[in-house]
Each structure stands twice: as C-alpha cells, then as structure tokens.
Amino acid sequence: MSEGSHTTDGDRTQPTHEGTRRRLQKVKNTVDRTNTIIGTIAIVVGWILGIVTLLPFHSVEASNTSVRITYPSPGVIDRQIVMQGIVRYLPEGKSLWADIQDLSDLRQNPNNQACSVSGTNFQCGQLYIGGASQHNHRFQLEVWIVSVDQIQEINSYNSTAAKLNYPGLTSPPDGTTIATSVQVLRR
Q1: pTM higher than 0.85, yes or no?
Q2: In CATH, which superfamily holds the domain spanning 58-186?
Q3: Rounded CA gap, 96 and 117, in Å?
Q4: Separation of alpha carbons 144 and 97, rounded Å
C-alpha cells in the first residue's frame, strides 16, 4: 500500500496509520506555532507594562508625598488670595505649583511662580481668582507637584498668557501630579 492510502471496510473508508500520524503532526505544529505566538505576545505585553510603570505619572516618589490645603477652605473667597498648606515628603527636585481652574470652561491657569516651601509648610502667593467680572464663578484651586520639565512648560505659557488674554492650558503639563484641590466660589 502507498503512503496515505486507505483500507476499505465494507462501505466505510478508513485512513492508514501513516495518514493519521501526518494529520496529528500538522495539529502539533499548529499548536506549537500558536503557543509561540501567545508567548511572544505575553512578553511584549510584559515589556509595555514595565515601561508604563516607569512613566512620571506613576511616580512612587509622588505617591508618598502628602499635600493639604489649609487656606482657603471650600467656600466663598476674594479675588486675590494667598494659598497655604502643609506638605510632607516632597521629593528632591520637585516643586509645588498652584493652578486656578475655572469650572465653567475647565481651562488650567497655573500661577506665575512656584509655591514657597519652608519645612512642612507651603505658601502660594498672590493668586488671582478669575477676571474682574467673574463674580459668583466656581473655581477649583489645585496644587501640582512638578519638576524642571513641567516648570519650563508653565513658564513658557505664562510668558505669553497676558498678551493672549489668559487662554489657559487644556491640561496640566505631562508628568504633573495633581496633589490636592479645593473648590471655591469667587466673591
């Protein structure tokens, strides 16, 4: 009999052992290729997840930092204030920065200078909450944790903001951690 030939048993045709062995080898090869592909995908996904955990917004240092605003508290505030608070475990090379977000349009308006930190106290001076006509507007005051890269982006925005009628940023600079916030109503 030739390879892959069949035997006849009455009306039924059955493959020989050699034909079955070839079919099983094809199935084994297919399973092996599938396992290789799945293994490769698992390795690539592992690499991607490993890279994502190294990105700045997953900073272990920032997660240990504790920031609390002590003034103002939620409620009605004047147009011009000095934000104060407590900070613990601020990583070396990081700064605190105040941001004023108009909740009617969600633009970010970072202050023009970093907050000063002395021991565990911080102060963000001369914050202007909205424009002269924005009485009874709701704002969210945020404290950001930033590094040199974010400070450069904030300073770049602030260098032209007044000339452009303070257009605001659509989001905090990449790598910024929003440490805490408080919602207020402008008097």
Answers
A1: no
A2: Immunoglobulins (2.60.40.10)
A3: 8
A4: 5
